[in-house]
Amino acid sequence: MTDESLLKAAQFMSKFILSFDEIDAEYELHLKAQERAYYKWLKNFSTRQDSIDGPSRRDLQKKGILSKIQNKLSHAYTLIKEGDMHERERSDQYNYRRNQNYLSGEIRLDSETLYINIIVKHSVKFVNNELDRRAEERWLKEKKEYKHHFDRLRAFAHVSALKLAKLALCSDLKPSKVAVQLSNDLSRLFPLQLKQFGAEINTEIEYRKGAYFVLSVNVLSIDWIILMKHFQASAKKRRDLWAKKECAAGDLSVKRCLQRMIYKYTLFQFVEDCLSILDHMHWTISVPICIILYNSLLRTTLKRFIITAVTDDFFQYVEKKGMEMDLEVVSGSNQAAFMLEALRQIRHDERDLRRRITEAEKAESFPGVTRGALLGAYVDIDQRDIGPIPDGLLPPDDLETVVLHIDLPVGYYRLRRAFLENPVFFADAIFSDALEYKNIKSEPWDKFDGQIGKVTSPDGIEESNFLGATMKFEYLMPKSAFVKENMAYEDITLTSYNNYFFSLLKQINNPHVPYGKTFTTLFQMTIFNTGNNSCRMVSSCEASFPNGPPFVARKIISEIRAGTQNVSVIIGETVGKYANEIPHKKN
Is the dihedral of CA 574, 579, 580, 585 positive or negative? Predict the structure, then answer.
């Protein structure tokens, strides 16, 4: 075995070496398993002895002082480990009300009731861990069958796991469990949380199926003085952050800054600023104004505003559970139609999941019909090894959240050519077929179009001159359970380009979605050359708030993470599907 092969084998095996923390964790699990087995044996032994010895032994246990203490300790242990049976039954309020026909305390549902619709989903960390786990299983299974280099084999193992990782992304096993806990916690803690804002409410779990549930909320009373003081502080924080970000540099005039702020203004930001202004007035003036507006014009808007203002805490709670979620506050008049559409979309996703599971069981390769050799022919230079990245040649820093890192069984130059030289692969294979976008339009690179992406650069052109080139896409995104069809506008900038890596930074705007004018999605893809007909893709994302983050910022960030991760998985899956498609030679 050569030194290089030995080094690669050692690098691969290093992933299987357990750290001290992992060894300690396994030891703890081993002890817990022994403890569980012991108490299970103790329970079975006690039951068996009771059946053998009859009443005389049980009477003896009752009479002995030591036995009484032992029984008390055993009962205490059971309560600590398992909890009281009746309390466990009552802990899930939704099932308890259904099973017991529980009617007392149910809130009154009318046209003023608001409904919080929530779907719990898998997070970025879960999918990356699932992808790595399945890739390792694939590696161990197939390494004896392949005679290629380690990088090529690892890439095949990783990309073959994408199909199964996508199934895990769609699976609702863990989200369903989190939804049960989350729905119960919110119905209990939500009224206490809103009381800090000056609002008194009652709430109840109206519906729950799988990872989807609905909370009904009635606003009973509002302390306007507390409410105004709270939103005065949040509005000031938002304005200060916006001014620091947009106007402090001095490159924009005050008039231009105000125009940009007004253009991206939302209704809830307007309500927040109005409450902030009223807080500076005497309460004898501000409170009557709030009451008049609430009882005449803005009743539903103000209630939705108050409830939506605290949803950031919901997302923080779910993130601690390692999950993401979609959330929407809907009025009583629109809830039936909204819920019907959400359930219809959930059933569609379930059918799609069953179809993918069937395909995964039938075939190991990527299923589906392709459009031909959109990646083009193999490139000879891709078969070579690649050395380390030279000093001073640094890839761009990842954005705030890395959503996927994946090895692909496609040569670096071949993939760079397909991604950059012609937009056909992105437009047809990814956007149209895989993501089901419609009305796709594109504009070419604003400089060096037709030259960027070529295997060898034309004479007289420096590759460094390609940096900063931009390309544009626009498309109609399909509807989801919570978002209707909407147009997206994508500006792609080439931020690095050499023989070791290239990177694309996408700025995506969705002005027609809720709060769409308040944020821009930043999505970066960096492709590294790993040699031997393989490359590595690292995707990351970040939310940009030009006017400062709104109070639904965490909701927006969660949706961006989930959306960019889904797109990244589909890109990797599509590249894997087209990897072996090559042009036929003409006779």
Answer: positive
Token code pair at residue 556: 């927006």
Contact 208, 119 (CB under 8 A): no
* 3-state SS, residue 398: coil
What is the chain's Cα-based Rg?
Answer: 29
Tens digit of each residue's pLDDT, the chain (587 residues)? 556 666 666 666 665 565 666 666 666 666 666 666 665 665 565 555 555 444 444 444 444 555 656 565 565 555 554 444 444 445 677 776 666 655 545 677 778 888 989 888 776 555 555 555 555 555 555 544 444 444 444 555 455 555 545 545 454 446 777 788 888 888 888 888 888 888 888 888 888 888 889 999 988 888 988 888 888 887 777 777 666 665 555 545 555 555 555 555 667 777 888 888 888 888 889 889 989 988 887 888 888 888 887 777 778 777 776 777 888 888 888 888 888 888 887 787 777 666 665 655 554 444 456 778 888 889 999 988 888 888 888 899 999 988 888 888 899 999 999 999 888 898 999 999 888 899 999 999 999 988 898 888 777 788 889 999 999 999 999 887 778 889 999 999 999 999 999 999 999 999 988 888 889 999 999 999 998 888 999 999 999 987 777 777 888 888 898 889 889 888 988 888 888 888 765 44
Separation of alpha carbons 375 and 372, rounded Å: 9
Q: How far is CA 469 from the centre of its chain?
A: 30
Query: Strands 212-222, 114-122: parallel, antiparallel or unpaired by DSSP?
Result: antiparallel
For the record, the structure tokens of 161 come out as 């796991």
Query: What is the torsion angle, in degrees rounded to the nearest 10, for the CA atoms of residue 374, residue 375, residue 379 and residue 382?
Result: -170
pTM value is 0.69
Among the listed residues 223, 216, 235, the one whose alpha carbon sits nearest the alpha carbon of residue 197: 223
Pairwise CA distance, residues 225 & 287, whole Å: 7
Residue 216: its H or E element: strand 212-222
- Evaluate whether 399 touches 560 at the Cβ level (below 8 Å): no
Distance separating alpha carbons of residues 188 and 313, to the nearest angstrom: 14
d(CA 491, CA 564): 15
CB 9 within 8 A of CB 150: yes
